[in-house]
Amino acid sequence: MIKTLLVDDEYLALNLLEEFTSKVPDLEIVDKIKSPMKALNILQQSPVDLLFLDIQMPTLSGTNLLKTLPHPPLTIFTTAYSTYAIEAFELNAIDYLLKPFSFERFLQSVNKAKEQLQLRASQTIITPEQSRDFFSIKADGKVIKIHFDDILFIEGLKEYVRIVCRDARFVTLESLKNLEELLPSDNFIRVHKSYIIAKNKVQSLEGNLLEIGKNKIPISRSKREEIVAWIFYK
Fold first, then answer.
1. How crowded is residue 64: how many other Cβ atoms within 10 Å of its Cβ?
2. What number does CATH give the domain 128-232?
């Protein structure tokens, strides 16, 4: 079952969402909420797979609500205004339903969400025991073992990560934050919002670019001194 939260400050729109959602057997309604602040509280405390979210709401807009979540669920925006479409997709929304929308259009959005959830289930990180020196990923229909010592760096690509090893590269559905917590902190460091690097694979630093093999990895300007000290002097 796909745990689904419905958020809209308009009573009629919320009821229509509930009616449409109840027609889809795979969807389980966690709650239907008119207040964005109450919705935020639920999202921070309860697991939600799919979020139907209005944009123009009092106190907190739907887009700003989504920005406050470090790990937002799959989100489908529902709004009467087309002007927010670009911002919605910059926030990685699955779809953008323009009110009034039909059940058929609603179902198209749900099917997109199902495809994403199925992809996540087939391409995920398998967390190792702490004593192991590797983790496993699911990619290209295979389970692949990734040894820590083989990793050069990892690049975040929105909902995916690219793991660059000595002799191979892999893309899997995972967050950079989760990998940062998984990797041993004495060997790996996040040097930029989009990059984690292996300390012992760094060859040189030029300006704000680390050289790892033939790759140039940017480092955060605000943490440059801390990063350089950790890589080159510790």
1. 14
2. 2.40.50.1020
